[in-house]
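Lab notebook page, bench 4
Experiment: in silico fold of construct C2
Operator: M.H.
Input chain length: 302 residues
Purpose: comparison with the prior construct
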Amino acid sequence: MGKTTLTANLGAVAARRGLRVLLIDLDPQTNLTFSFYSIEDWQSHLKDSRTIRQWYDGDMPGRDVSLADLIVTPERVNSLLGGNGGRLDLISSHLGLIDIDLELAARLGGATTLDGSKRRFLDLHGCLRHALEDSQFADYDLVLIDCAPNFGLVTKTAIVASEHILVPAKADYLSTLGLDYLVGNCAGLVQQFNDFVSHKGGAQDHSPIDPGFLGVVFTMVQIYSQQVTLAQQRWIDEVAEASRVPVLSSRIRNSPRHFGDAGETGVPAMLRDVYKDEVVKEFDQLADEVLTALELSSGDHR
């Protein structure tokens, strides 16, 4: 279970608890979208006019398409929320989003002066942040953005738009290396963005950003006799000791029974499983930990 399954299930659990949740799929693989819509539904109803690619297209993201107009409400998952005031909405991704990074990079290089270049940088990197500040998004308690597994320009727009960053990771060597890489890239982006904001030629309609790392949550953990295996626990301990990012106490075990068919039903596993088995309990604990850190609780409509 990776970042997309984590996003879908965390969002579903939060909505089941009465929160109004918006999921934004920025991964060209479109797996978060396909967690709620079949490929056939996506092709018939979303592909041509209701995906985030339409919003990023054009000279400047959002100039021709309103982000709010792309919101869809998956019926199957919302029918299981129990009428408690919670809601789960989605902005769909598109397989062609993979081309957008190159297009954004070309637009970024279009300015002819230093001040113009800095303004262009701020406008492009801050486009999603600016869009989400619109009053049409004020009713959401929680917005979760599923990013691509790279640090391209689309992902950078998500970082700039975020208040907190939650990092799912495997307990292995490559994931710990990737965490250091992510932390360094985020720090560099934040510094550059804020330097441009403070520059005398910077755009007056941008303000400094300070996205903090909410923490690392280890997923696909191997559990034997109710304990994490020694090999994986070693990597978890190493990250906890050496990383600048806090490690959440929640662990999500590897469970093909729960997550092997992700997307086939249009309903995340945590809403399909009515019995409180160990995996469901782990997700509830993760939701408790994340929502408490965000100062959100059931029915907190802020």
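Observations: The first helix runs from residue 3 to 16. The CA atoms of residues 50 and 69 lie 8 Å apart.
Next step: discuss at group meeting.
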